[in-house]
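Known limitations

Files may contain more than one protein. Parsers should not assume a single record per file. Below, a two-record file is shown to illustrate correct handling: read the sequence, read the C-alpha cell line, then continue until end of file.
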Amino acid sequence: MGAYIIRRLLLMIPTVFGIMVLSFLITQFAPGGPVEQALANISGMGGGVQERISGGGTGDFVAQQGQQPTSGYRGSQGLPPELVSRIEKQFGFDKPPLERFVSMIGNYLRFDFGQSYYRDISVIDLIKEKMPVSISLGLWMTLIAYGVSIPLGIAKARRDGSRFDVWTSTIIIIGYAVPGFLVAIALVVLFAGGSFWSIFPLRGLTSPGWEHFPWWRQVLDYFWHLVLPITAMGLGAFATATMLTKNSFLDEIGKQYVVTARAKGLTERRVLYGHVFRNAMMLIIAGFPGAFIGVFFGGSLLIETIFSLDGLGLLGFQSVVTRDYPVVFATLYIFSLLGLIIGLISDLAYMWVDPRLDFESRDV
C-alpha cells in the first residue's frame, strides 16, 4: 500500500506540470490578453488618461505621438513606446515566455500565487474569500444527494418493477432532464419573491447583521439561504446517484454468491447489507469524489450567478473573461492538485470497502 501511494504521488508531479504547460501555451496564443486589453482601454480614454499613466507631462506625451511603438500589440498603435513597455512590465510580460513560466512554477511550488491583475488582493486571499460559498454548495449538495440517493436506490433495487420503482423512476428522469438553471429560475419565481411567494432569501449565504445573531439563529439563517441553490443543483446529481445505486445493486443481486447466501438461510437484510452492499458500493464510492469535485469547482457557475453567490465558479469564469492570468493559473493549479489527491483517496476508499483489492500489484 505504501509503495502504491508513493507511486501515485510521484505521478502527480508530471500530470500537474503537463496541465500547467498546456494551459500556459494556450494563453500565449489567445487574443485579448491583459496587455492588449489595457492598451485598448487606454486608446479609448483619450490623451489625458494616457498622460497620467505614462507619468510624463503634456509636452512629453505630445512629442511621443509621432513615434511608432516597437511592440507587436495591435492596440499599441499611436501610443508611446515607454507607455507600452511600462504596461508590459506591470503585467510581467516584459520577460520571455519561458522565463515567465519557470518563475511561475517556482512560485507555485511555494504556493506563492502573486497578486490579481485587477483586484488589489493576493490570489490566495481571493480564493480564500470565495471558498466558503463553493464549499457550502459542493459539500452540502453532495452529502444530501448521496444521503437520499443511496437509500432510495437500494429501495428501488429491492422493489424492481413495482409501482414504487416506476413512479420514482419517472420523477428521477424528469428531474435529470430539466437543467439546473431552469429549476433555479423557477424556484426564484415561485419562492424568492419573483411573482408568487417570498419565503426564501435570494442573495448571499447569510442575512445582513448575521454576525450579531445568536449561534442557533446563525445556523438556521445559513441553511435557510442554502435551500434554493442546493435544490436547484441537486436534482441532476440526485438522479444519477440513485440510478447508479439501483443498477449496481441489481447487478450484484443477480450473482451466484447471493443465491448461495440465500440458500444457506441468511435473512434478506443480512444478504443485502452483509454481502451485496460492500460490492455494490464500489461504483458509488468511485463516483463520489468526481461528483464533489465537479460541483465544488465548476458545476455551480450558473447557480452562483442566479442566486448572487460569489464563489469559485463565478471567480473562475470572470478571471478567464478578463484574462486575469494569476487567478486563472492559480485556481487551475490548486484544483488539479486537489483533484488528483481526491482521486487517490477514492482508490484508498476502494480498499476500505473491499480489503481483497491488492494495490501493491498495480502498476500505477
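...continuing to the second record:
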Amino acid sequence: MDFELIRSLNRPADTKMLLLVLDGLGGLSIDAQDLTELEKAETPNLDELAQKSICGLHQPIGPGITPGSGPSHLALFGYDPVRYQVGRGVLAALGINFDLKQSDVAARGNFCTVEKNGKVTDRRAGRIPSEKNRELCEKLRKIDIPDVEIFVDTVKEYRFLLILRGENLSGSLTDTDPQNTGLKPVPPKPLGSEARHTAEIVEQFIDKARDVLAQDHPANMVLMRGFSQKPDWPVFPEIFGIKAAAIAAYPMYRGVSRLVGMDVLETGENLEDEMETLEKNWKDYDFFYFHIKKIDSAGEDGDYNRKVALIEEADAAIARIMKLKPDVVVVTGDHSTPSLMKSHSWHPVPVLLWSRYCRSDSVNRFGERACMAGGLGPRLPTIDLIPLMMANAGRIEKFGA
C-alpha cells in the first residue's frame, strides 16, 4: 500500500468502522461431519450478517507462509508485514506500557517445562497463572550481568518480558524457542556481527535463569522469542485520517495497536468487559479494532470443541455490536489456528465486509468453504481490507480528474 497516496485521498466523514478480529479463527475439519470449527459452530448472527455482506478469504503474508500474530495484525492494519517487521519483544513491552527506549533490546519470554536431559516437554509450562508468573519474574530480576541493565516483567500467564539496556546492543538475534516439544532450547545466534555481544549476554541470562528456576516445576526454564528494538514508523491515524481505538485484553495486541498509534482503551479480561468498553467509547472514535483472543488459545491447545464454543460465544456479541449502528463492519481472524495442528497455519482466513454500499454475494453462511466462493475471492491480500473499509465508509476521495 502507498501510504502517501492514501493520505492524499483521505476525506472526512461522520462514519463509524469496526474491525472485529476473532484470533486464530480459521481451522480445519476434524469431526465426523468433516467440518472446521467455524463451520461446526452455531453462528446465526454471523450467518445473517454474511448474507448481507461481501465475503472471502484473506491471506496475511503470501501463499504457504504461516504468519505470526504480529505480522498478521500489521497486515490487518494496512502495513506490508514484509516491509514493516518488528519482533514480539517490542510488542510485549508496549502492551504492558513499559517505557521502552529506542536503543533497548526487548524479547518475549515463555516460562516452559524441561526434563532433566534439557528437552522441552511443555512450551507454556501448563499455562501457569499470572500470579505465579509474577513470583518467577521476581526471581529472575535478581540475575546480574556486567555492563547491562536487565528488566523482567510479567506479561500474562506463562509470558514474560525481558529488556536489556546498555551500550552496543542489537536485536538481531534468533529465537531460543525450538517451537516443538522433545527438543532442547536453541542457543541464541547473532544475525550479524553487531549482535555478537548481545547474544553473549542473552546466553548468560538463560544459563542463570536455568539455575534460578531449577526447582520451580513446571516453569523450570525459559524460551526467548522476538528479539527486537523499537522502530520509527508512520502511524495509523495519520495515514488514514481517522481517530482510532483498540480494545484488546491481551498485552501483545495492545502493543501492536500502540505501536501504530491507536489509542489503547482500558478494558477487562472477558468479552463482556470488552463489549462494555466498546459501548462506553462508541461516540468518541471513528475506527475500532476489537480483539477476541481465546479462540486462538483453544486452537493451540488442540481443543476443537472449546474452539467451537468460543466462536459461538463471539457470535452472540454480533447483534449487540450491530445495535450501535456502525457504518462498516469487518469480521475476520488474524490467521488460522486449526486445532488439528495445534498451531498457526498458512491457510487463508474467512472474512466478511458489511456496509450499505457493499455488493453482497451468494454466501449464506460464515465458514471457510462458503467464503471461498465469495466476492472478495479466495486469497485477498490482507493489507487491502483497511482501504476497502475506508471506501465503504465514504472516507476516500476520487483519484485523478
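Parsers that stop after the first record will miss the second one. For reference, the second record is described as follows. The CA atoms of residues 60 and 382 lie 5 Å apart.
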